[in-house]
Write a structure and sequence with these properties.
Blueprint lengths: L1 H18 L1 E4 L2 E9 L3 E2 L1 E6 L4 E8 L5 E6 L4 H9 L17 E8 L4 E7 L5 E6 L10 E6 L24 E4 L3 E5 L16 E5 L8 E6 L3 E6 L4 E12 L1 H4 L8 E9 L6 E3 L8 E9 L2 E8 L2 E9 L5 E7 L7 E4 L7 E5 L3 E3 L2 E4 L1 H4 L2 E7 H11 L1
Parallel strand pairs: 2-5, 4-10
Antiparallel strand pairs: 1-2, 2-3, 4-12, 5-8, 6-7, 6-9, 9-10, 11-12, 13-14, 14-15, 15-16, 16-17, 18-23, 19-20, 20-21, 21-22, 22-27, 23-26, 24-27, 25-26
């Protein structure tokens, strides 16, 4: 049955590529379908400045989706703003109040349709469109090119469409005021396209705040980062996540871990600057990707802290890399886990009664290696 369903979705994509662009009087009509695997069947199209445009949006998927057209270069900004809506998201259709959102279609349920009419911007450029339903916006997007000609970039190098769609054969249909490029979605079981670790999702997780980030690392290791409290919540081994309930629009649904948790942080303030018993004020400032690994940036009492987590080379734990470049006081690191089989070692500092004490100089750059001996034991058993 699954194979039949996938074939049907591909037929929808192929049909859409032939019928995505129509001219009705002075109006350009664009037909876009949301299809299986959190993808738009049409990932890019071109219109002339000032032309009247009508989007016919059909949800051919079994989960809910919305549709937002944004200003150039603002897709991720809008996606992150939608995630910040948290419990207000459903009532706002996950559409943030932002000047970067030009036009939008509210959440459309499975097998339903909606339309959107507007006048294309007079300024040429690349205008992203995206679904901002939780967990969708990082992979479900496309682009409207506004230009006086019908020429679009080579799809193989087009950074405005999802990576999985750049290597597919492009079907283009040029008209007097628009052109269309649509690539059928490939068949994958766990993700809309092959994801090679490390990668992350902003998503709802158990035992963590509403603004959580789940990161899948190499070596079959994953972890949950809580941006609200600015700390690692837990790490697990095995599979990554089952996001089905969230992506199908179930209320109050969380992602489900497909593995076994080997570390769960119970210390409310793992990093403290100053006295060991101080209570810091934490503020999340964002993250950047370094070789695809997220380096989290947060502040403790106004002091910048940077943390990047990688798997151990042997796959039996994680290594937490810290940078606190502007610190002028002693730094303490305390890690309390519900799992007693995790051992902590550090690249600098001195352990005192289970707490790591670092001088300002040592705290500028140090790492904590967390070895899970239960993982190490299981690895050795498999090798025998």
């Amino acid at each position: 049955m699954r194979e039949i369903y996938i074939v049907m979705c591909l037929l929808i994509c192929a049909f859409s590529s032939l019928n995505a662009q129509q001219i009705a009087g002075n109006e350009v009509v664009i037909n876009i379908h949301a299809v299986s695997g959190m993808q738009f069947d049409l990932v890019r199209f071109n219109v002339r400045p000032g032309v009247k445009v009508k989007i016919n949006f059909t949800n051919s998927d079994d989960m809910s989706h919305n549709f937002l057209l944004t200003k150039p270069g603002t897709r991720l900004e809008v996606v992150n703003a939608a995630l910040q809506l948290e419990e207000k998201g459903p009532e706002m259709n996950y559409i943030p109040k932002s000047e970067s959102v030009l036009w939008s279609i509210p959440v459309v349920s499975a097998n339903q349709s909606a339309t959107l009419s507007f006048t294309a911007p007079s300024q040429p450029g690349s205008y992203p469109y995206v679904c901002t339903y939780p967990g969708h916006g990082f992979i479900m997007y496309g682009v409207m090119y506004v230009a006086n000609d019908a020429i679009m970039p080579d799809s193989k190098t087009d950074q405005n469409i999802p990576p999985s769609r750049r290597e597919e054969k492009s079907v283009q249909s040029a008209g007097p005021s628009t052109s269309v490029s649509s690539n059928p979605m490939p068949h994958h079981t766990n993700h809309p396209y092959d994801l090679e670790p490390p990668f992350l999702y902003r998503i709802f997780m158990d035992d963590s705040g509403p603004a959580s980030i789940a990161v899948n690392l190499p070596k079959d290791i994953s972890y949950c980062w809580d941006t609200g409290s600015c700390r690692l919540r837990y790490a697990w081994s095995g599979g990554f996540l089952d996001n089905t309930a969230i992506w199908k629009g179930h209320v109050d649904a969380n992602a489900k871990i497909l593995g076994s948790v080997f570390y769960r942080e119970t210390s409310e303030y793992p990093v403290i600057i100053g006295k060991a018993d101080d209570v810091p004020v934490a503020e999340f400032k964002g993250y950047r990707l370094i070789d695809k690994y997220p380096e989290f940036h947060y502040q403790l009492n106004g002091i910048d802290v940077y943390e990047l987590i990688k798997p151990k080379e042997d796959g039996n734990g994680i290594v937490r890399h810290f940078r606190i470049p502007g610190v002028g006081n002693t730094v303490w690191f305390t890690s309390k886990s519900m799992n007693g089989s995790v051992e902590h070692t550090s690249s600098a500092g001195k352990w005192i009664d289970g707490k790591l004490k670092l001088t300002p100089q040592e705290a500028r750059q140090f790492s904590i290696t967390m070895t899970n001996y239960s993982l190490l034991f299981n690895t050795r058993r498999k090798k025998k």
